[in-house]
Each structure stands twice: as C-alpha cells, then as structure tokens.
Design a protein that fits this description.
The protein has 126 residues and is an all-beta fold. Helix content is 0%, strand content 47%. It is built from no helices and eleven strands. The protein has a four-stranded antiparallel β-sheet with strand order 1-2-3-4, with no helix packed on it. Strands 5-6-7-8 form a four-stranded antiparallel β-sheet, with no helix packed on it. Strands 9-10-11 form a three-stranded antiparallel β-sheet, with no helix packed on it. Strand 1 and strand 2 form a beta hairpin. The chain is globular, with a radius of gyration of 14 Å. The two termini are 23 Å apart.
Length: 126
C-alpha cells in the first residue's frame, strides 16, 4: 500500500510488516520505520492528516497519529479481509485490501477475498 500527503510518501511492506516513510523533497528514506505491523496492506491519509492502515494479519483498521509520536489506535476489528494468496505464491498475489476516505470523513475498507466494501462512518470512529 502507498499513501502520500504530498510531502511524504508512506509505503507498507506486507512481508516485513514495516511502514516506511520517504521524504519526497529529498527522496530520503526516514529510519527507523514508522511501525511494524502484521501484514499491512492498504494505506490512506484521513481528513486530519493521520495514516490509516489495513492490517490484514489481524483483520483490523488502524490509525497512526503521525504528529503524536506515531500513536496507534484500532478503529475497527473483525473486518472481512482477504487472507493471502495461493500457498507457494507471493503473498496477496490475487487480492488486495485497501482503505479510502471520503470527503465526509467516512472510511471505506475493501475486502478483496470477499468482494466487499465496509463503511465506517466518521461519527463512529474513536
């Protein structure tokens, strides 16, 4: 997964679980990684500049507050997500779970394996 706020690029590495940060003005990889999660996939920036992450290994949607020491909050659990690809193939070769934020602040999470879109209303987010 990739997301950007136009000054920084965030990239999820499914295999290592790391969320990396790249400074777009210099092209420099910021170290250490923002977080180490369980199979992160989809990324998005919410309307308040926080990073949303679909963590497929735990079927959760997480929010990382980049301005507050990368504090992690669980927004939703038990999401209907895909659970990897075919044994022996690269992980998530066939399905991808993503996240997007609408203008209202509502969050949409796709479940690739089940062909679902899950909506989390802005006023229901902790």
């Amino acid at each position: 997964g990739l997301a950007s706020d136009w000054s920084t690029l965030y990239a999820a590495d499914y295999s290592t679980g790391n969320i990396h940060e790249v400074d777009l003005s210099s092209g420099t990889l910021v170290m250490p990684p923002i977080a180490s999660l369980d199979n992160p996939e989809g990324l998005a920036i919410d309307n308040e500049g926080r990073l949303l992450v679909v963590e497929t290994g735990t079927s959760r949607l997480l929010r990382i507050d980049l301005a507050n020491g990368n504090a992690i909050t669980t927004l939703a659990e038990g999401l209907d997500l895909s659970q990897g690809g075919i044994p022996g193939a690269a992980p998530d070769t066939f399905f991808f779970d993503a996240v997007a934020v609408g203008p209202s602040g509502d969050i949409y999470v796709t479940g690739g394996g089940s062909n679902v879109i899950q909506k989390i209303k802005a006023n229901k987010v902790r």
